[in-house]
């Protein structure tokens, strides 16, 4: 489990650093991440490791899987954690169909 955590934490920290460096609108030097399991202890480790790398992380906990994508597109969060490619493709297709029906 510890090795798995190491392999997951460092790529995400790199992505956070790159996102922070890209000049996207941020509130200070804070990276806002949407998650759906904030009570899990690995987020404390993640936040500590990010702080060691000079990255301030704020989490927004979502209870509905449909909330993070709109929050991301509206700029309320910078990244979201839960998504996989198949879900995103389905979400985008469904969202597009909904917009065209209006």
From TrEMBL:
Any single GO CC term annotated in Swiss-Prot or TrEMBL for this entry: membrane
Name this polypeptide is given: Methionine ABC transporter substrate-binding protein
Membrane topology, as annotated: Lipid-anchor
Signal sequence, start to end: 1-23
Family under the similarity heading: Belongs to the NlpA lipoprotein family.
Organism per entry: Nocardia terrae
Main location: membrane
Superkingdom: Bacteria
Keyword terms: Lipoprotein, Membrane, Palmitate, Signal
Cellular compartments annotated: Membrane
Pfam families cross-referenced by the UniProt entry: Lipoprotein_9
